[in-house]
Amino acid sequence: MCRSISLALLFNLFVSVSWSQIRLNKLVLEPNEKYQIPSGDILVVDTLIMQDSSSIILNHEKSDNFIHTKIASIGKGCVISGQGSDGMSGRPGDRGLTQSAPCRNGYSGKDATSGARGRDAVNLSLYFTTLKMNGSLLVNLNGGEGGHGGKGGLGGDGGSGTRVCPAGDGGNGGNGAAGGDGGNGGALSISCTQCPNLHLLLGEALIVRNFGGFGGVGGDGGMGGQAGLGPVRDGRNGQRGIEGAHGAQGKKGLITIIGN
Description:
By secondary structure, this protein is mainly β. The chain has one domain (22-258). Mean pLDDT is 90; it is low at 1-19. It has helices spanning 2-19, 198-201, and strands at residues 21-29, 34-36, 42-50, 55-57, 64-74, 78-81, 123-133, 137-140, 188-194, 206-209, 255-258. The strands form two sheets. It has a six-stranded parallel β-sheet with strand order 1-3-5-7-9-11. The two termini are 48 Å apart.
């Protein structure tokens, strides 16, 4: 009984792994063609030919992607792209209502919402047997930038005064919201058994960008509303809202070269 359960678990594991893998004998990308990995996280291809300015777009639904190829031929200006998307900016706060009735204070502005965190880049592992570098390859694994924080709402103006009551104060401005943190850069691992010295290619024919995304800028606090004016006493201007904190920059990804 236990043995049957173990075999069933192994079979299910095998099926799930098989579904996550894309197997091709040959993949030829024409100049300027973009190939989107449609599903799964593993692309296995015997021969990969990337002609000038062609691109491979990694599967962003998987945190780790793997490309295995026996022979890879890279043209000029080729790109493998797995950078994280930018976070959305926060919404500004609504403006406080201006007081139409005399002697009443204006309403405070609403606080803004925070910017969203930038998305982490994909981690990528490249496995080559032979690499023919006829041009250049950019591997873009930058983290997404954090969204900017929303601006606080303006305070409403105070109502005017009369002979029997002082004018109203202006409402306070809403607080600005924090910017989102930047996404982390992706980790890149390259393994090649019959390749030129990859360390010498780095920064020249092989360019890697895996910086953390910039944090979003905190939103400004809303301006306070204007004081009402009156014959007895003018009101006070509303206070400005607090500025939102800036988001933190994401972490830079690692680069690991195996084999040479």
